[in-house]
Amino acid sequence: MHLPNPVDHTGRAVIVTGGTKGIGFVVAEHFLAAGADVLVCARNEPGTLPSAGGRSAVFRAVDVRDPADVAALVDDAVARFGRLDVLVNNAGGSPDSDAATVSPRFVEKIVALNLLAPFYAAQAANRVMQERPEGGSIINIGSVSAHDPQPGTAAYTAAKAGLLGLTKALALEWAPKVRVNYITTGLIRTEAAAAVYGDDDGAAVTRTLPMERMAVPSDIARACLFLGSDLASYVNGADLAVHGGGEYPARYMALHGK
User: Which of 31, 21, 89, 92 is nearest to 56 (CA)?
Assistant: First the structure.
């Protein structure tokens, strides 16, 4: 019996949207370390690109909300690498907002970034992957907000819930050549999110987590390596929870002094 190595992506080509900082940066680093060629995108070129093993990711400036821009991104990856095996739809996010007063423009921008942009990128990637004997893998980075909304996240929650539904729909339509999966991320310790976790450096938040720590970007990156590998060849339309078991219910915390 021979089992594929989920960490070995030598010879594969990967796109990571929003791959110049935070989770996307680390996802790109992990694919590079695993041997893949990686193209990252963002609206502005960063001072430092993801690198590993003496190789760096390639950068392209893209507005992922623009269908023509993301189509050109996919074409660029194929032109550079001769193929496209994995798309990681990572670009997204939202500041907290009051649903009662938030502007229509804000809602439209959040939905465009977190739902429409992944749809456009997936369409462009599928067009290429369907023509390849090996097909490909599309990984949508979601959020626990899609399952468990928090105050101040109405537009973001709706968009991520929509992305989960989109994932399942595309998995039905594009199989067997292209697998489409979703990662439910929980609380993740990144520089950008540090201010959200309080003045105690997240100690109080951590007490709500069964794993007794927040996730770090490498936890998400390793899940991407798995979903993009042959070991996940029958994983399609899945919602992979990478949230450490979620959070303790409020009633349990009240009763047990957590």
Answer: 31
Half-sphere exposure of 146 (CA within 13 A, CB side): 26
Question: Is the Cβ–Cβ distance between 4 and 15 less than 8 Å?
Answer: no
* Length in residues, the chain: 258
Catalytic residue among 156, 182, 197, 252: 156
Active site residue 252: no
pTM of the shown model: 0.93
Which whole number is the average pLDDT over 149-168?
A: 96
pLDDT above 70 as % of the chain? 95
Cα Rg of the chain, angstroms: 18
| pLDDT (0 to 100) of residue 163 | 98
Residue 60 pLDDT: 98
CA 132 to chain centre: 23
